[in-house]
């Protein structure tokens, strides 16, 4: 049996009615694969892994994997994840969100999770569009790009997930793409084991909704675009406008749940 | 321990300006009458959004039996520590009820049937701390209420207040008690006078 | 149990909000997430003081009202008894996730201390304007339990009842109190732990490979596995089948929705709590709840003293509506008065149950002041 088949048997839910919802060419499956490979490589107990997902294409990922999975409401995944981690700090809580979840409706939760440094791994699958609802403009849609709700090109400047998470004080911030699967695996593992709040942005193409509206003739064009327009942050020279990938912030602050347990212990010692 | 005096329903309103410590006063009074004395007590409050300034009031209802309505409708005792409070609440005083004012802050009482002490001035001059105003009022109120025991009130003050300010507040409480005894006369007399005035008014009303 | 009687309960002179916090701790609440809002803030402040001092208690101040709901549901899914408290504007914000809690059948308690509304309204004044919102606030058809309390000791008692019902029926329970009840101070005696019945959710009785997380276990309620217990379930706000996976098959959807209602509707005898006072021979009845029930109690006493046959029905469960108790009054009394601090939210229910049998009168006040006994007395006489 091939390694991939073994992983599929071990980590995908065979009682779930496949096929999945992802379109052909969608990058989300690659990110999901990376997540499974990372959990396997880190030898995490399935019983202790919790996937908390938002709404949208990325939100559907939770149903396919054989962990504890919670498919929450739009934008609120991080609030559930915070409650779960605080209630049981032993769990590995991984929060899967799209760009709409993390940057728009749940933007407040993202910056506050970073500020309070809760021990959760936030995985932001950025496809620069609202895919499931039919291709509307998101806060990650590049300025000038087309969508159903920006038919004349988006006027607004998009958020940079990495810069936002860094500024809000996230302990670990990284970016990769679904083209760079090996790098994604490596960063995913780092993000999961890093204490405190980690943010990993994965640029993940949406050929059906974003590609068609923005002159990508086929799926391969979109992956080629990722290849051409990204650069490892270590190799990026001044004036290079390509999107940097890699690790952008690596701090060593203890997670909120650790500090809370310490507080509780010190209060009990007092009594 | 003395046997508890039977009270049907006794309503007190403490009113004035925010920052005078009226809600704390209501809390101490209620705490003491409920837990120390053993009465049924409800204490409610009404306040604006301001932490300081603005109007403020606390209501205390005391009874030997269970209290249904927790707020006040017919006041037995109205304490007014500002002119606006006095004007606003005087009409809720029942016939035979007593009006107690800060005689410096309430210059124009709407009736000549009232008693007063310069609480704020006493706090400033005799205690040297304006914040003890509410505890001086508590002393005076304890004197006015025949069912309130000074000893138990002092104990309740000690239970509620942080240790740092207890001595000062006990001093203020004793001052209020003493001043009330000296200037307001014996408690039964005050209520008797009020009751008689009430009866007279009622008679007049009857003749119309 | 003679030795029990000898123990002296601890007595405190406390506010309704404090009694709610005490009740929550006695009921086994170990998780609180909230956001400050007048007039419920004292509940949060007490939990902030108390929970970190308990063995595994967690207190969290979240970034907003929605996040507080999310964190509390998350904690509930890990097996915790969780609570959040708020007031009008915050209660509006929590509505979407109240629906989520109904959908995934997450037990939890939401306290709403009602203040004047709509919008920012009267932050420091009492009202009873959120009654129908508590029932129908979240979108979609759903059952819910809404409780209320009118005195400080009742705040403690009903908070314990709220947690017990939440656990027993796997549902969010809303405790509606008002600013008067929340801020009135009264003497309460704290019961000993063994004096109270405290319920916990049903746990799976089968190994993970046999477990169906949304299959009825008893009374229409499924057993609940905690995250991390080895069951690795899927929880979703999408309509789901017995395994917890999304479904749109009409037969599965219908089975799920009807069970959701049935688990509460079939247990009215357990869920409906009312207090009857002087009703045996009453010709005139007052139906009230919250702080207004106290005014009504006073008014009933005054009316009885004058020889009028008046009684009081106090609703401690607001929803599901106490149909049997109210129906009885509709047959027995010539008049029913429903005083409330809104323009008629419970009187609407009373009229529905009455179905034209007797005369229903309303007494409404929306000026941020409690309805007084004399107003009720005037309406009765």
TrEMBL record, chain A:
Transmembrane segments: none
Top-level division of the source organism's lineage: Bacteria
Classification via CDD domains: TPP_OGFOR
GO biological process entries: cellular respiration; small molecule metabolic process
Cross-referenced InterPro entries: 2-oxoacid:Fd_oxidoreductase (IPR051457), THDP-binding (IPR029061), TPP_enzyme_TPP-bd (IPR011766)
Alphabetical list of Gene3D superfamilies matching this protein: 3.40.50.970
Domain Thiamine pyrophosphate enzyme TPP-binding, chain residue ranges per copy: 55-201
Signal peptide residue numbers: none
SUPFAM superfamilies: Thiamin diphosphate-binding fold (THDP-binding)
Key words, A-Z: Oxidoreductase
GO MF entries: oxidoreductase activity, acting on the aldehyde or oxo group of donors, iron-sulfur protein as acceptor; thiamine pyrophosphate binding
Pfam families in alphabetical order: TPP_enzyme_C
Name of the protein: 2-oxoacid:ferredoxin oxidoreductase subunit beta
Annotated source species: Halodesulfovibrio spirochaetisodalis
Highest classification ranks of the organism: Bacteria, Pseudomonadati, Thermodesulfobacteriota, Desulfovibrionia, Desulfovibrionales
Automatic annotation (TrEMBL), chain B:
InterPro entries from the UniProt entry: 2-oxoglutarate_synth_KorC, Pyrv/ketoisovalerate_OxRed_cat, Pyrv_flavodox_OxRed_cen
Domain Pyruvate/ketoisovalerate oxidoreductase catalytic residues, every copy: 18-177
Protein name: Pyruvate ferredoxin oxidoreductase
Molecular function terms, GO-annotated: oxidoreductase activity, acting on the aldehyde or oxo group of donors
Top-rank lineage group of the source organism: Bacteria
Organism: Halodesulfovibrio spirochaetisodalis
Keyword annotations of the record: Oxidoreductase, Pyruvate
PANTHER family: 2-OXOGLUTARATE SYNTHASE SUBUNIT KORC
Pfam families on file: POR
UniProtKB/TrEMBL annotation, chain C:
Keyword NADP: no
Keywords: Oxidoreductase
Domain of life from the UniProt record: Bacteria
The protein's Enzyme Commission number: 1.2.7.3
Domain Pyruvate flavodoxin/ferredoxin oxidoreductase pyrimidine binding: 23-249
This protein's record includes keyword Cell division: no
Annotated PANTHER family: 2-OXOGLUTARATE SYNTHASE SUBUNIT KORA, PYRUVATE-FLAVODOXIN OXIDOREDUCTASE-RELATED
Name of the protein in question: 2-oxoglutarate ferredoxin oxidoreductase subunit alpha
Species of the source: Halodesulfovibrio spirochaetisodalis
